[in-house]
Design a protein that fits this description.
Number of helices: 12
Structural class: mainly alpha
Number of domains: 1
Strand content: under 5%
Low-confidence stretches: none
Mean pLDDT: 75
Shape: globular
Number of strands: 0
Distance between the termini: 47 Å
Length: 223
């Protein structure tokens, strides 16, 4: 078996695991949205058109906390600003043309982190698109299941949004080969996992950015 075939087989397993985790968090999102009183068509529509778990979870959590819809939407948009940085990273290996419009919709924590773990540009593109389509299916599917289950059980009490930072932690450890950088990334991922039970959904990835202070101090010492 060639190394390319092995890479594709490994990708299938990875994508299946990540998509399954996304589906599980989607169930939590759907249940929360149902509890907030949003109609099923709106919950599923948001899952398809926004396709941003952290932003959608934060929006629903804000509504449940009594925030005005515009304020909740503003907070969700603020969380999603990080996708602009992800888009810059993805533009280095994605091809031009009309497909970039669809690629922009698929840019998120998981797709960019998983794609950049590959060294070959062609494999990066393949990883991005395969995982992107998998999330495009699994997230709305999970939301649909959550809306249904939300009428009969308190799925949100399980704290399933912690799956996201855990999955990212596993991915970035393989993507960062240098030990000092890997330690910094690991600190950020562990911080996200640790604060998840105590902060609003979607806030953990932003708090994890505090680990960049370690990188800044390290570069300052070099300078």
């Amino acid at each position: 078996m060639s190394s390319s075939d092995q890479s594709i087989r490994g990708m299938a397993g990875d994508v299946g695991s990540i998509a399954s985790a996304v589906l599980v968090v989607g169930v939590s999102y759907g249940a929360l949205a149902s509890e907030a009183g949003l109609p099923a068509w709106l919950v599923i529509g948001l899952a398809v058109t926004v396709l941003a778990g952290s932003a959608e979870l934060l929006f629903i959590a804000s509504i449940l906390a009594g925030a005005a819809p515009l304020a909740a939407a503003a907070g969700a948009l603020l969380v999603n600003l990080r996708n602009g940085v992800y888009g810059i990273a993805a533009s280095r290996f994605l091809q031009g043309g009309w497909t970039r419009l669809l690629a922009a919709h698929f840019v998120n924590d998981e797709t960019v982190a998983y794609a950049t773990a590959r060294r070959d540009p062609a494999l990066r593109r393949r990883a991005f698109w395969v995982l992107g389509w998998a999330i495009f299916v699994s997230w709305p599917l999970g939301a649909t299941i959550g809306v249904i289950l939300g009428t009969v059980t308190d799925v949100s009490a399980l704290g399933l949004d912690a799956v996201f930072p855990t999955i990212l932690f596993a991915m970035v450890l393989g993507a960062v080969p240098r030990k000092p950088a890997a330690i910094i990334v690991a600190c950020g991922a562990l911080l996200a996992v640790a604060v998840t039970p105590f902060v609003p959904p979607g806030a953990a990835p932003l708090i994890a950015l505090l680990s960049l202070v370690l990188l800044w101090k390290r570069r300052a010492r070099r300078g």
